[in-house]
Amino acid sequence: MTSRAYVWTWLPGESSPVVAGIVDTPPRGFRYGRSYLGNPAAIPIGPDLPLRDGPLLPVNPDFPIPGALLDALPDRWGQRVLELQLKVDEPSMHVCMLHADSNRFGALDFPTSPVDYIHRGSRATLDELHTAAELIDKGKPLTPHLELALRHGTSIGGARPKAQLVNEVGDEWIAKFSSTTDILPVVQAEAVALDLAKRSGMRAAQHELAQSLGKHVLLVKRFDRTPDGGRRHTVSMLTVLRLTEMTGRYATYPEFLDEIGAHYSEELFRRVAFNIAIGNVDDHARNHAAFWDGAEFSLTPAYDLDPTARGRGWDENQAIAFSRDGQRSSSLAELLNTSNDFYINRQAGKANH
Fold first, then answer.
1. Host domain of residue 262
2. What is the pLDDT of residues 242-290, one digit of tens each?
3. Are 153 and 102 contained in the same domain?
4. In this structure, is residue 16 part of a structural domain?
5. Cα angle vertex 204, ends 17, 183, to 5°?
6. Same domain flag for 14 and 41
7. Strands 297-299 and 162-166, sheet pairing
8. How far apart are CA 131 and CA 165, in angstroms?
9. Residue 184, phi-psi category: left (phi > 0), alpha (psi -120 to 50), beta (remainder)
10. In this structure, how many other beta carbons lie within 10 angstroms of the beta carbon of residue 299?
């Protein structure tokens, strides 16, 4: 098995990728290729990977690899799929780079060739993807055909069953399925939350509720894709704030706002209020993201809104603090008291409450 992973990226406005550089083995640092550095259209492929020659190590010594690269790797569900497919326990980051499919979060991929880009993935129907996801969720083996089908799900984040679906016109969607352990109608509840978010004036991911195998499936359109077949560089709140999975609990919304720009003040404040109102305490730093154009951030649509996350009553805390001093109590009144931390006055806070 090859030990090298090359990083390919989609530049803004382009529908095909170019090779950007190479990842160290074992994964730790990254180095831009000469051809990429010499490309006048090149942009830094992440906020933590400036355009310069030589090795680029993680900005935080606790990072296993630079955050922009880490965001493009599969999370718990995708790793679970890889464990089954490759018959390995806890696949390494290098394995995740080389063996997850190409439909990753954002605009990066990790083929094994610096010359020819080969897309890794397969087409499958929604029912085939649903069947494969259910078998994995139950810990049962897949047939070869279903195993190939679910390779479309190995690059997606999160812990719940899901897969990637490409429709007949080439639009890319994430299909989110029920889990065998669900007690509440999680899929339908998220669809309702996304509907309510849009009605409340928030920008929320485009979605629709579908049927498969007699059950509801939530289809969420990829907002990190462009109509012409391109991809948008997208990084998690963790990467924006230079935090890791372990230190993500120290994230705050005001610090995120400092990075993405104060013009998102009212929108971000409204999202926090909405999460509190629907009881979504799963608002951790991987459930927020920003587009990256090589110089500036812009806020993505809201996604992963889970009104079933509350489990211990109405005295819960939000996963991310909404004040600079760490206030995270799931209270609209407490949020309103921190409106100055969002660069808005109390009256504007009430308007977005």
1. 234-351
2. 998 888 889 999 999 999 999 999 999 999 999 999 999 999 999 999 9
3. no
4. yes
5. 105
6. yes
7. unpaired
8. 14
9. beta
10. 19
